[in-house]
Amino acid sequence: MDSAELLDILGNENRRRILRLLSRKSCYVTEISEYLGVSPKAVIDHLRKLEDAGLIESRTDDQRRKYFSIARNLRLEVSVSPYEFGMKSAYPASANLDVSRCRYLSLDIAVDASEGAGGSEPPAADAERGPETVDDATELAAELDELQQLQRELSLAQRWVHGRIADVQDRLQETLNGDEDRLHAEVLAAVAGGADTTAAVSRSVEAPKPAVEQRLAGLAERGFLERDQKTGEWSLAD
Question: d(Cα 219, Cα 237) in Å, to the nearest integer?
Fold first, then answer.
């Protein structure tokens, strides 16, 4: 399911309240109905839509009571600015991701990839491991706090980046002599990012090739871009 459909589903307040409740514990229909103050029939309809979207899953206990819970981690991002409207959904990266390879990100945090998702199972409870279990819980609580602080800092960094992108786009527009056609700026940025063919630029800016070709030619005429006569590849002008 794409991001737009997910956004439509989450646009309903009761479905958001259901997810908030299920983020705390698994629930059955009657519990959810009492929590929301709506009929079980309406709850079942909301649950069906959430389940069809892959956001929740269900299981039946020994008493044949059906419990619902959130199926998996999902991040849905929406960006709105004078230069952009976009949505994207993403699942968590692998615990084995080497964040040191990110060019613009520096994290002062150590993560044991052998633990958590995809890692080994935690050791079984053992009465003789009492003190160790307390130590483990203390360490995990400290790591949880550190990760939550990191999450807040990353959120703040994302907001800063969002604002900086809009600011740089404003300045780029001014550099292009106040050109109101913002596609020129997007095309120029795409070439700066390594898109060197019309097709590649078209994919990058998500615009039709004829429109991209027109902007590329215009930017070349104004001295911002140049094209290799042999390969036909575009690059920033020297």
Answer: 10
Does 174 map to a domain? no
Is the pTM higher than 0.70? The answer reads no
Among 54, 53, 57, 13, which Cα is nearest to 37's?
13
Q: Return left, alpha or beta for 150; rule: phi > 0 is left, psi -120 to 50 is alpha, else beta.
A: alpha
Residue of 96, 15, 87 whose CA lies nearest to 51: 15
Q: What's the domain count of the chain? A: 3
Whether residue 101 is found in the same domain as residue 88: yes
Residues 194 and 154 in one domain: no
Which phi and psi (to 5°) does residue 124 adopt? Answer: -70, 155
pLDDT given for residue 74 in this prediction: 83
CATH classification of the domain holding 187:
1.10.10.10
122 has a pLDDT exceeding 60 = no
The residue range of the domain holding 193 is 183-236
Q: How far is CA 36 from CA 20, 31, 45, 66, in A?
A: 11, 9, 13, 18
Contact yes or no for 108/99 (Cβ under 8 A): no
The C-alpha atoms of residue 204 and residue 3 are separated, in whole angstroms, by 18
Q: What is the mean pLDDT of residues 166-170?
A: 82
